[in-house]
Amino acid sequence: MARQFDHMADVEAFVTIIDKGTISAAAVALGTTPSVLSRAVARLEARLGVQLMRRTTRRLSITEAGTLYLDQARSAFGLIADAERAIQGQGGALSGKVRISVPTTYGHYRLPALLRPFMEQHPQVTIELSISNRNVDLVAEGYDMAIRLGELADSGLAAKRLGDEAVCLVASPAYVAHAGMPRDLDQLSRHACLPFILPSTGRQAPWLLRVDGQDLDWLAPARMLVTDDVLGVVTLAQQGLGICQTYHFIAEERLANGQLTEVLPALRGRSRPFSLIYPPHRRMSAASRALIDCLPSGC
Q1: Domain range for residue 46?
Q2: What pLDDT, in 10s, does the model give residues 148-173?
Q3: Domain count, the chain
């Protein structure tokens, strides 16, 4: 008796090619060669009796029939993945992989201590951690969860507040010795400030200040603008190039050992929230659910 679904590898090849954009990229992702994938798609098209993709030497495009088949194939693979998630961890130790996206600040300074007890308790679970300041698309890019900074927009995703983190202004002792310590906001505006450009908007991130009991979002004047890596402003400040605003959890060790000094502590009092976001529980593995439960809830 012939197997009904012995062509699933060909379907996976087709879906991966579309997802990756080129046959070459799909071959790398699947650990095979472009010629093997081309033959897989040809077999699938012959089986279905329709053309799924149009291929030339320069570009690849999907046909109308291919689009319809792609949607159904993704749904089918999603159901299989859901079935696997549902039974993971039911009969013993948790296993599997959890993919997390996290910003550089949290990934370097907060998350390691939070992950350590989970990793020790569940040694068969693999964590795939992407540390960057890019807001990934959880569903499209296959992430189980992400840590995000700031107030969250309504996205249909579940969220868990991890905590509010205080910010402060810092500079190196050498910079203060050379340029002087600003005494108020007016003096601060005449110093070398080191603001950060938000990757998501291309706009300067305002400094969060509290002046005479009132919250102020202040755009620092600057001769140097930092993009992509928000930790760069701390490095530049530590090397004496100016004043930056950063999280206290990043600056605290440097403040304690004298590499940085706090500027205008009277303007402190503001914070930014960090939250964990994830799809609804019905689409999550047991390992993902356990990790969510392991991460502490903030206020």
Answers
A1: 8-87
A2: 887 776 666 788 899 899 999 999 99
A3: 2
